[in-house]
Amino acid sequence: MPSSKYAAYDAARPYFDLVRAALGNLVDGEHFFNIVSDDIVYEVRYEVSGWPRIIRGRAKLMAQFRGYCDNIELQSADKLIVHKTDDGRVVVIEYDVDGTILANGVKYNNRFCSIIEIGNRKIAHWRDYMDSLAAWNALTARTR
Q: What pLDDT, in 10s, does the model give residues 86-124?
């Protein structure tokens, strides 16, 4: 969703829009950063240089995504599969992202599985899994 408040994050818009659509009426807010709780725990189950395994708090998550958007521009996020469990308190999403690594111009294609816990109509906890080799290959490729 376009918003000047979040213009610095436009490079990740396809991802944000996909997550917002996947959660539908389970959460309140329009933009990704409006649907995460102030005390969110955002956990990644992989190693990527410059990205911490656990991020605590909305402000820190926003700062981390700012760095992401300075390095990767997404062109799409799709192939969404949504699994709702525990009366919608837990949502598992599977999806693909396609983009470009800005430093080297290499195309970036990856698959993800994210487990999302909802509390008080916001994302309270996020656990992320991805194809680490795809990320490594794109990030370490030589400039074309």
A: 999 999 999 999 999 998 898 989 999 999 999 999 999
Q: Which residues contact 108 (CB under 8 A, 6 or more apart)?
A: 72, 97, 98, 99, 100, 101, 134, 135, 138
CA 35 from centre of chain: 12
Residues 134, 38 contacting (CB under 8 angstroms): no
CA angle 48, 50, 55 (to 5 degrees): 90
- pLDDT, position 47: 82
Residues 133, 17: Cα–Cα separation, whole Å: 25
Query: Is the CB of residue 19 less than 8 Å from the CB of residue 93?
Result: yes
pTM metric for this prediction: 0.89
According to DSSP, the β-strands at 122-130 and 36-44 are parallel
